[in-house]
Each structure stands twice: as structure tokens, then as C-alpha cells.
Amino acid sequence: MTDAQRLWPRLLRGLGHDLVVLPAIALATVLTVLGCAEIGCRAAYPERTGDACAIADPVLGLRFKANCASRSKAAEGPWVENVYNDCGSRSATACAPPRDGRPRLAIFGNSISQGYLIPYDDSYGVRLARDAAALCHRPVDVQNFARETYDWRKTSLDLDEALNVNPDLVITTVIPLDLETDPENNPHGPQAHAESSILKKISELTTESRALAIAKSLFYKNGNNFVKLYLSYGEKANFLREPMSPFWERRLVMFDGLLQEIADKARRRGAPVLLAYVPQQAQALLAAGDGRQPGIAPYALSARIAALAARHGIYFVDATPAFAREPNPTDLYFRVDGHPSPKGQHVIAEVIRSKIASSPDLRDRFCRAPAGPSGRGGLN
């Protein structure tokens, strides 16, 4: 056997060894880097989305313990102190009617209204109460009964609790996701479930990874990146398109029924209702810049909801123009979580304050001294 013949088996054995060892080393290196990145991101961006004061409720899904305090945090946001009063309302004051006759504002509905993952003083209800004091020439009391386990039936029950504290004004917000969510508590409509998109797969991938979530947040800082991905989300994004799809038309019909129920309940208790529309991130970005794309209508859904609210005598304000006027609307959101950030909550509060200030009948009804349920008029 020649030297060359003896050399080939050794070379093949060495090559086979390298084909196993080198990829293994590369994989171990990648896993080590990713592991270190994950550990670092979890240390730098801690998260605690659960609320220790939340307790299961067979009807509402959850409620909050009376006289309880907790801490929570979005990975993208600050630590939050949650304090609940004697009736489980997220409020710094007691549920009993204010003795000094100050106007009372009651918040109900979804997690945006709750101020989920938002410092108490930055929530739109608290900022609104502070700003409305100048309109009413005296302090304003605020009680917050909103919660993050949203469905339409629970919103109506939240309103019941809000009305029980005899408010002079009740306020809630609506976002596209609220209409997308099935009234029977199905997380999304069947058509939305059938859709597949890059955004959906990215969301699933980053559910547990803090490092990927932070990377996604940085990627979304460029609004164009977010809009392109969101518009690929199928039925979920079709509220941005004209004509409105059958799925969203059905949702509007069902939401109309909810508004009728809300208006009837509030009218019987003599409290005016104000509904504020809060845009989805992509919607705010499109309204700010790229809304002239063929077939894209950033204001179509809010315009339809405004018409429904007017029909039921509910005061309405659309926050989309105010969000669109910001230099970078993505700063108004926790970009991955999707909820408005403290800065976004500030914008919502200012939009609602402006609506009250520019509506003399609403301002007068809200700011007058409480006269009890029987002494208040009906809705506008």
C-alpha cells in the first residue's frame, strides 16, 4: 500500500470528525450567546405582568381585592404600584361619595382604561381628573373599575359597578382589538385565526424570549417596519381597509348592540357616557404618514363608531388625530405589548379633557355638584 493510499483513510476520518465537532462547537457558541443575551435582557428589562391583588371571579373573570397593593411591570415600562380602595377600584380615594361635593368620574371597560402596566398618576383617568379640576374649579374624584380580561359582556358589568358609585360622568375607551374579540369570549374571530402572517409568527416566537422581544421593540421603533408587517395580518388588519370586510361589518353590528345597552343603563342612572377611540399602532402611523395608500383608510373604523355613539346619545372623541400629530407615534405605545405607554395615556387624557371643555352641556353636567341619581338628567 502506498503512502497516498494509507493517507486517505486518515483524512476521511479527520474530515468526518470535523463535520461533527465543528458544527457542535458552532451550535454551542450560538446557544451560549443567545443564553447570555436572554439572561442579560431579563436582568435589564424585568417583567411582572400579573397582579397579586387580582382574584378570580366567576362572572367578571377577575376582580381586585379591596384595600390591596401590588407591583407590576411591562418589560418596556417602569415599575408600577397598584393600589385598590375599599371596593376594589384602582383609586386613591374611598368609594363613598365625596363629602365636599366634588364631581366624580368613573372609568370602566378595557385594560387601557384600567391603566394596565401604567403608573397610577400617569393613567388617563387620574390625569384627566387633575386637568378637569381647572374646568370645574374644584377637585375631581376618580374611581376606576376597568380590568384587562376584556369581553363585551364584562364591559357591561364593569359599567354596573361604575354606576353604583353615583358618578357624574362615566368614561371608557375602545380599540380595534375590542371589536375583533368575539363577544362569546373567543379570543379572535374564526377568519382571524385562519390567517397566517409574518407578524403572527414573530409574536408567537417572542412570547417567552425577552431578548427577542426587546429586539422586536427596537425593530418596531421604525414605524414603517411595523406597518408593513401589520398590514400582512389578514383579517385582523382589515378595519384599515375600504370597503370594510364582512367580518368587521358584523363586529360593528354587534358593537352597536353593546353601545345601546351601555346607553340605556347610564340613562336610567342619569350619568352621561363618553367613549374615546384609541388607535392601534399601525393605524396611528398610517394616519400620520402613509394613510394615502390605495385602499387604506385609517379613520374608517373610528368614523363608523362615532356614528354609532351619536345614535345612542353617547359623547365620542377620536384620539387618532392627536396620536398622528406626535413626531413618532410609536413612542406612545409599548411597542411589543401594544398598550399605550405613559406618554400615550397623557395624550388620551388631553383628548378627553378637550372634548369636555369644548362641549358646554357635557362640561356643565359633569362639573356641577352631585345631586344624586334622581336629580340628574339623561344622556345628551
Secondary-structure arrangement, i.e. CATH architecture: 3-Layer(aba) Sandwich
Per DSSP E runs of 2 or more residues, the count of β-strands stands at: 9
**Number of discrete helical segments:** 15
Provide the residue-averaged pLDDT.
Answer: 85
- The fraction of residues in strands falls at 5-15%
Sum up the overall morphology in one term. Answer: globular
In what order do the strands lie side by side in the largest sheet?
6-5-7-8-9
Classify the helix fraction into a percent range: 40-55%
CATH class category label: Alpha Beta
Indicate how many domains the architecture comprises. 1
CATH structural fold name: Rossmann fold
Structural class per helix/strand content?
alpha/beta
Report how far apart the termini are: 104 Å
Order of helices and strands: HEEEEEHHEHEHHHHHHEHHEHHH
Question: Top keywords for this entry?
Answer:
Rossmann fold; 380 residues; 15 helices; disordered C terminus; five-stranded parallel β-sheet; alpha/beta; two-stranded antiparallel sheet; 49% helix
Describe the fold and architecture.
This protein has 380 residues and is an alpha/beta fold. It has a single domain (54-375), classed as Rossmann fold. The protein is 49% helix and 11% strand. It has 15 helices and nine strands. The chain has helices spanning 3-44, 111-114, 124-136, 152-163, 176-180, 190-194, 198-205, 210-220, 223-231, 246-269, 281-290, 300-311, 320-325, 342-357, 360-367, and strands spanning 54-57, 61-64, 68-73, 79-84, 104-107, 141-144, 169-174, 273-277, 315-318. Strands 6-5-7-8-9 form a five-stranded parallel beta sheet, with helices on both faces. Strand 3 (68-73) and strand 4 (79-84) form a beta hairpin. Helix 4 packs parallel to helix 10. The protein is globular and about 105 Å long. The N and C termini lie far apart (104 Å). The model is unreliable at 186-196 and 369-380 (pLDDT under 50).
